[in-house]
User: Which sequence fits this backbone?
């Protein structure tokens, strides 16, 4: 089994307007736990375009400067689709703890995407906790993950 994330690195986080309140609460929660958070915005609940925040978050994770990433929007689909355009990103949408565990175990996900309009904040925090402390299983799953990239 592979190691979990290097939690000495900052955790990248970004959102659109629908995820703003969750981003603020999750950032505070992570900082209270002693983690460093790199916030890529947005900085208010005013309507914005999610790619403007998902791309910088994904780029920071892809560069290796982040432990992992968190993206939040209403359904999580827009931020996940945007982040997954980056070749080294494996962003997964989570709506329950078991999914957060499986995207790490089987898919080596490096960004967790939270649908703020469909999960309660305490569940979002639980999913992030599960995600950040679950290692990639490797083995047959490693072979599959290696086949994901287009290049």
Assistant:
């Amino acid at each position: 089994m592979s190691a979990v994330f290097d939690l000495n690195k900052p955790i990248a986080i970004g959102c659109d307007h629908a995820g703003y309140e969750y981003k603020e609460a999750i950032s505070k929660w992570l900082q209270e736990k002693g983690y460093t958070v790199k916030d890529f915005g947005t900085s208010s609940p005013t309507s914005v375009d999610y790619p403007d925040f998902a791309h910088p978050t994904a780029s920071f994770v892809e560069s290796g400067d982040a432990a992992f990433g968190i993206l939040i929007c209403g359904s999580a689909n827009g931020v996940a689709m945007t982040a997954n355009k980056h070749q080294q990103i494996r962003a997964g949408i989570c709506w329950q703890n078991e999914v957060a565990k499986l995207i790490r175990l089987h898919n080596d996900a490096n960004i967790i995407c939270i649908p703020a309009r469909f999960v309660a904040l305490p569940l979002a925090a639980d999913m992030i906790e599960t995600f950040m402390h679950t290692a990639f299983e490797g083995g047959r799953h490693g072979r599959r993950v290696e086949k994901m990239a287009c290049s």
